[in-house]
Structure formats: C-alpha cells, structure tokens
Amino acid sequence: MNNTDYNKLTQRYATMREDAAQRHKAAMDSLYLTHAPLKELDDSLHTLYMQLTRARLFHDSQAVSDTEKAILDAKEAKEQYMRENSIPSSVYDIKYTCPKCKDTGLLEDSSHCECFYKYASELYFENALTPQCRKYTFEAFDEGVFENVPVSPGKSTTVRSYMCDIKARLEKYCNTLPEATKKNVLLCGNTGTGKTFLLYCMANAILEKGYSVLFARSFTMFNELFDAYISDNSTLNAMVDNLINVDVLIIDDLGMELKKRNFTLNILTSILDERMHAGKHTFISTNYSLKQLQEEYTDKVFSRMANAKNTLCIQTVGRDIRLSI
Asked: Which of 4, 214, 304, 314 could staple 272 via S-S, CB 3.0–4.6 A?
C-alpha cells in the first residue's frame, strides 16, 4: 500500500472516531434532557475529580481525604439513580463503528484489525475500477457482443450460448458464496473474450453481499509488491497481509506481469498458499492456456491455481469482442 492510500485510510478512521464522538455527545445530551439529576451528578463528579487532582498536586492530605469521600458519595448516589431509572452503565460507552479496534484500525497487540483489511480492500477496488467498470454487472451482460457461430467446426454449441452458460455458472457461483465448495475460479482464454468483464461482474455481485473484495491487475500488483520489497519490508508485509486476508482476491491478466528473478513465483506461491489454508476465495484470469500456465509458473504454483478439487476452471471462447464494439 502506498503512502497516499495509507493516508486515506488514516483519515477515514479519524473521521469515524469524530463521528462516533459526535453521536455519543448527542446521545448524552438527549439523556441529560430526560434525566437532569444525572447531569448534575456527573458535573459534580467532574468538579470533584478536578479538586482531587489539585489537592494531590499541593500535597493537601486532608483535602485529598475529604474529596475522595465526596467522590464515593457522589458515585453511590449516581449508581442508585441509574438503578432506579433503569439506565445501563453502557450508556457512557462510545459506540464505535468497529468495537474491536475502536475505529483506529489497530488491535491491542498493534496488529491490523480485520476492518482495516476490509477498508483497504475497498480502496484498492475503488482504485482498480472506474465508475464505468462499476456498472459491469451480470444484469448488464450483453450476449449480443458474442458471435452466434459454432465454438468450433462441427459443434452445435455457439460462442454466444457458450458464453451465456459461463455467465450463468459464475452468477450462480457468486450467489452461493461463501458456501461454494470450490474456493477458486480460473478464467482462461484469448484476449478480448470477456474474462475481465466477468471478473468485474463477480466483484460487484460479491461486494453487494457485503464481502470484501480486492481487484488487482497482475502487472500493477507485482510491480507494487516488488517496489515495496526493495524499499520497505514493513510495507511489503502490510500489502501481503492485505492480499491474504481479504475475503475475495481477484487477479486479472496473470502472465502480463514482469518476472523479477524468483520474487514473482515466491510471492505468488505464498499468497495462494495462505489463502488456500484459510479457505479464502481467489479468482484469476489469464490469456494463457492451462499448459502454458504450468510451464510458466511451475508445477507447485500451478497446482494451487488449477487444482480441480478446489478450482472452477473455465475456458472462454470466441474472437476479440473489443474489435467489434
């Protein structure tokens, strides 16, 4: 994650905390309007605590003792009033959007909260998709862009009907998340056969269900990871954590990235391994055939991308539809 994106997340959390504080103040103001004695008791306690601080500062032991007794009496009176009026103590708690991290993005052990990954994923998705791409949904699927010709000589199935079937299968798959038996989807096919469009459709459908999605173009993703690798390992770790923890990771155009020594294969293997063990969903599109994938990425990586038990492998067909639009 670059500094610009990180700053956006930091500002988002700051805004969330400010909103939570304003909601809390409004709730307390409403409570005090109904329970004026409670406000008097809280004001009295506030004053007594200030007096106690001053007494301790000047080492006035008698004043400290008297003030501590007054505080105990005021707290008892407050507790009695709240009991008699059925006011829970939780009324004083600020209601954060994320109670786990209190809208900071960090847990007590300084690790990132799961909401951090969710918001970071939304940011990545926003960066990856233009407003036009947000409109790419299963409902917007236009079968007319595909030729009504046989997928191959002698076959009765047409390119159009075949692609409509793929669309239906992927839409059904998204509807079954997160219970889908196969956690991965691999779309193979020539350039311009609708792979990226279908990934957009899946991303939008899954976001509508409330799951986090990270849509990354392979070329950009691996470039950013490598830049972090050679400059700042902490940034690299945060980026990899984000790729691992997001509910659904979508890698578009695998094979278009620049291969940088062993880095590309090692980082891809690590990400796919961690996501597989965590039962996370990973969708990949590529212009390569299955044979080319195996040759390019080694058996180890290929087994994680195209394992028949855990991956829905789909081959798109037809000529480049972008040339006819």
From this structure: 304
